[in-house]
Amino acid sequence: MSTPSVPSSRVLIVAFQGWSDAGDATTEVLQHLGGLIDAEVLHEIGAEGYVDFQVHRPKVLFDETGKRVLEWPDTRLFGPVQRPGGSTGTSGAPGAAQAADPAQTADPAESDTVRRIDGSPVRDLFLLAGVEPARDWQNFADEIVELVDVWAIDLVIILGSMFSDAPHTRPIVTTVTSEHEARRDAAGAVRSSYEGPAGISTVIDLALAEAGIETLSLWAQVPHYVHSTPSPKASLALLDKLEELLDIVIPRGELLVQANEWEANINRIADADEEMSRYIRRLEESRDEELAAETTGDAIALEFEKFLKGGQRFARDIELPQSPADRPVTPGLAPEADTPNADAAGEGHPAGDDQPDGDDQPDAPQR
Fold it and tell me: What is the DSSP letter of 65?
């Protein structure tokens, strides 16, 4: 096994089926990553006491010996295991039929692996998959905080996807937030300004922050008018952002083809429905206007920053006194006003990390 050329952080990526998994985007990401890395089940948080079995029913399966067994919707931690001799192995999870289970892996001989920029394979990536609990969220979050501590995780990335008034023909918008200032600066994230109903991802995020564990919340917007189908395009957007955040290379496999087919299928449906086409065009116009406004705002902020830097260079070149007390005052003229603070330019626009209430979504056209 080749080893990384430089030390790296142990990263845990978390996703749950349910409220925070619009278009199955986050669980598809975990399944995809699970098929690329050598990982096996390290720990299970039992579903009993947390999960409503009338919503997420256990499955009956045949094991390798032909015996009928039950697979419960437990929350599973997957990760690499170092064995004597320096090799890692993948045992997989019992019962690969669970949808949120990243142990549904492809044949390792037929798949690539997650690598760093220098080409070395990633051996310190962990996955946590499960369904959103129905009860006792605080104790559930405490169990995850304990897991993170036991396995010496350095960074937790919590994935989410929400239905939004986003056109399927435009790039999927992703948002990164964090409660940790240093992590926000390093990742280009913002602090969430969302207030409203929360999911288990937010409960876990705040519990980890309270324990001093660094976290990032990565969310993708999924077109709400295609809520009945999985959204591989949103999964791709999450993978793209994970690559950027972690400085790694993630093979896409069939996801790109699936995303193109997904968009083409929606286009065919819209072409046959004029009302739906008009609705999508309105969303496209709105998104394009928002993008133009953001671009214009960024350009203005950049030019203002250049102006301030240019003024500072000019002041250094002619050696103007920088202290107001030392600044000469010409008779009959008032002292100069202070230069505007550069921090006032180019402020970001914080975005919420939770899915808004469905009542706030625009109505999609009736088919």
Answer: T
